[in-house]
Amino acid sequence: MKKFIITFTLLTIISCSTKEVFVEDIPFSYGNNNAQPNLVSSNGTLSLSWISSKKENKASLHFSQFKKGKWIKPRTIAYGNDWFVNWADFPAHAINEDLIITSYLKKSASGTYTYDVILNLQKLSGEKIKEDFLLNTDGVTAEHGFVSIIPNNKKGFFITWLDGRNTVEKKLDGHHKPMTIRFAEITNKGDIIKESELDASTCDCCQTSIAITNNGPIVVYRDRSEKEVRDIYSIRNINGVWEDPNPLHNDGWTINGCPVNGPKVAVNLTNLAIAWFTVSNDNPLVNVSFSKTNGDSFGTPLKINDHDAIGRVDVAFLNNEEVIVSYMEVDDIGTYLRIKKVSVNGKVSKPITISKIDGGRNTGVPQLEIINNEIFIVWTIFVDGMNQLKSVKLSLENI
Asked: CA-CA distance, 289 to 313, in Å (whole number)?
């Protein structure tokens, strides 16, 4: 495996010293035109799903696991020529013991943003439990997507998504009604149960995020007020009952369109961390906020970026007290994918540059996971006129 050496300066009490952080490239050579990665760690395993696209509009969803230092031969989950394939609204997957559930988006009509969420449930062995079944059963030709899925102990899966069933209707002022966010449980047999609407007005196309606390699931998303304030909100399920949505922080970001930049949540014991992109006084920011109370309240946001933030964040716990945050930012020279270590007591490390990258849509939304004392990051690059996945890892030893 090829190794890249990134050097950064670490300030210590004694003096300034230099450490080398090795970013190790993990070869990925499975076909051409791969993009829309979703990286997941679960019970000591690392998995990756993505979409491969061809010129004749045929798309296919693939899945692989990281074993013995490499991505094993992928499995094709589904394929079709009527999919909605988009850099920001990418497939999700989750693993629960020997079960894997995946999602993709299928066009429901000729409109640009009329598509449904299709699920597949199977065993890791390849045995199919339920194929190509519809998540959103409203029957409305509208936008449905931005899916997040996590395992529900040994009982199936929790799933949340943005649902546009109300957007086909108009309010008294003539404007279409807003996007909503919904939640459901998927049983081990693929039954969709306990579906509910969490918020009747959300941003149209920002990624969602979900985690499980000691009290139940918590969903994080970008809200949308009547005055077009689009701040990050969270909503918790406590002992089977959904609370009212609450703002993570009153950023007060007013914008008339969707920024296509969702939050990410991570959990460790009772500690939660949420990373998100916002704009304050015309300054683009990446923030992180911690909760020590299962999401009941959050601390003061910590600024992560040093230059103009692009966002597209991810976050994962390093240990009980620290997280690694990945983010994109741009300076006078170029655009970079970087990580920082952040602690619950407010300490923010110096940045580590993972790569200089394309700041446009081709990069997609970089994915971050931590497993077995290593950080894994996957994103999309553009090579010889086609998209391809770039996967790297680095040891926690010198972070």
From this structure: 13
